[in-house]
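Ticket #4471: structure export looks truncated?
Reporter: QA, pipeline team
Priority: medium

Steps to reproduce: submit the single chain below to the structure queue and open the exported record.
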Amino acid sequence: MKKIISAVLFSAAFSLHAEPGFDNYVEQLKLEAAEQGISQQTIDAAFANTKFYQRAVKADKQQPEFKLTLDTYLPRAVPDWKVQQARALYKKHYPLLKEIEKKYKVQPRFIIALWGVESNFGKFTGNYNVVSALSTMSFEGRREAFFKKELMNALRILDAGHIEPNKMKGSWAGAMGQVQFMPSSFLAYAQDFDGDGNSDIWNNTADALASAANYLAQSGWSDDLTWGRQVQLPKDYDISNSGLKITKTLAEWQALGVRRYDGSDLPTRDISASIVQPDDAQGRAYLAYDNYRVLMKWNRSHYFVAAVGTLADRISYPPVF
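Actual output as written to the record:
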């Protein structure tokens, strides 16, 4: 009797954790992968232990409990301990960073800053099986087309032999490795910087940092500019001038009363920039250069850009203007 009761309880527990329809959906994904030219060997290995991640769906739907502002967000995203680590790693990897800078024309401090913001310098890269995570998010349906496309790209990465299926780990959304590339970004920008035949953004620091630099370079990065700067706006500032769609020269912003945060004049270079106010009219204001826009291609969040830029500015060397 005890064995029967235990079996019933086990069956009930299993049914509570199983996701109806997911297994059939995975079978359809396998067929689509084969139709797109993925080898059967890769398909079998990649989907061997596929599971539904309920916590991934929860993470996708979860909303913040309270509204963050840059004043509350930046101290969390760029604490003093992270700045100290960034400076130490900048010095440790300086020869490698200079090689990367020479090839991709991206200042080392921004490479280190991206590394720090994305994965705490490779320490937090996610422990989700990427194929399972992307299958889960595709099945969930809210952004099925996007996640299914990323899943097929993940299978192409496996098919090319860059990493083994059980080692392809990432976030709940499928962002992978030390620089948190989605599979499509991996295929477009990942680099085999050490020449060993694989682009390993999970375990190879040289590959990961070079891949980040290549992403920025291919997205239009200018190595003679910084990202932006916090500024003071005049009391009569017209907020309709704010936003990345509106650009003016630094001289024009200066004439409108915009000043550096310390109250001094803006740089005198003949370049264009925008004013962005990520919170509201009373919140922080930034003068955004073209590199700001490049960082927005990486992650379409003004908070993300502010975190990367702030960390880059706090690394040993001052920004270039």
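Status: closed, not a bug. The export was complete when the record was re-opened. Leaving a note from the reviewer for reference: The two ends are 79 Å apart (CA to CA).
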